[in-house]
Amino acid sequence: MCTVSVVKTPDGDLILTSNRDESPSRSVNKVIVEDSEYQQIMYPGDTAGGSWIIASDRGWFICVLNGAFKKHSHNPPYKKSRGIIAKEFFLYKSAFQFFQDIDLEGIEPFTFIAYDGDKLYELRWDEAVKHVSVLDEVAPHVWSSCTLYEPEMQERRKQLFHDLLPSRLALSGASLIEVHTSGKIGDPEQDFIMNRADRVATISMSQIVVSSDKITLFFHDLIEGTEVIKGYNLDQGQA
């Protein structure tokens, strides 16, 4: 949930890639498929019952980063996990309606990157105010979780990401996985594949690719070494 990018290729594919930095005890190796109210969703399940990255058969997706703008004090119990809130995104008719109507009182701060088949959004909750931004899909975007990376390090990682991006014509799911794998700050606690004394580490990589006729979820459990690929032909069910 801690290093996330969104890039659009010249062919029009929208690609979200996520490195999940978490306790190794929260590693999962199973992708769940289930029905939501308006659409079917697929996601790697978290131990808390939700997920940090979810895609649907309507070409929607959402990804979770812990924290909003700055590191906050962790003060449980919270009303609901952020991963459960992410699943509720698919109960609404649009990302804007979701964020306008969802009750976030008692929810820990987060940043959601969400796509509803029409617009790409950044949705931040700081425990007091909902912050909504519509993002330019053509420009590449990258985020590092503010709960693990100080502002200066977030900027260094952002610059490294842009330095490693291939030429626009070479952008693809595979090339972006390579960027998310090879980014080296020179400190294993800050690299894109990070490790902090095995207490927190990059335990998985996930990628969602939305094309004109298909959406695909790729999930790689770095602890177990397993990979899962699932997808939907849009408006036609599972691929």
Short description:
The protein has four helices and 15 strands. With 239 residues, the protein is an alpha+beta fold.
Sum up the structure in keywords.
single chain; 239 residues; alpha+beta; Penicillin V Acylase, Chain A; eight-stranded antiparallel β-sheet; globular
How would the blueprint of this fold be written?
Blueprint: E1 3-8, E2 14-22, E3 31-35, E4 40-44, E5 53-56, E6 61-66, H1 82-88, H2 95-101, E7 110-115, E8 120-125, E9 130-135, E10 141-144, H3 151-164, H4 173-182, E11 195-196, E12 200-210, E13 214-221, E14 226-233, E15 237-238
Antiparallel strand pairs: 1-2, 1-10, 2-12, 3-4, 4-5, 5-6, 6-7, 7-8, 8-9, 11-12, 12-13, 13-14, 14-15
Question: How would you describe this structure to a colleague?
Answer:
The structure is a single chain. By secondary structure, the chain is α+β, with helices and mostly antiparallel strands. It has a single domain (about 5-239), classed as Penicillin V Acylase, Chain A (4-Layer Sandwich), CATH 3.60.60. The chain is about 15% helix and about 35% strand. It is built from four helices and 15 strands. It has helices at about 80-90, 95-100, 150-165, 175-180, and strands spanning about 5-10, 15-20, 30-35, 40-45, 55, 60-65, 110-115, 120-125, 130-135, 140-145, 195, 200-210, 215-220, 225-235, 235-239. The mean pLDDT is about 95.
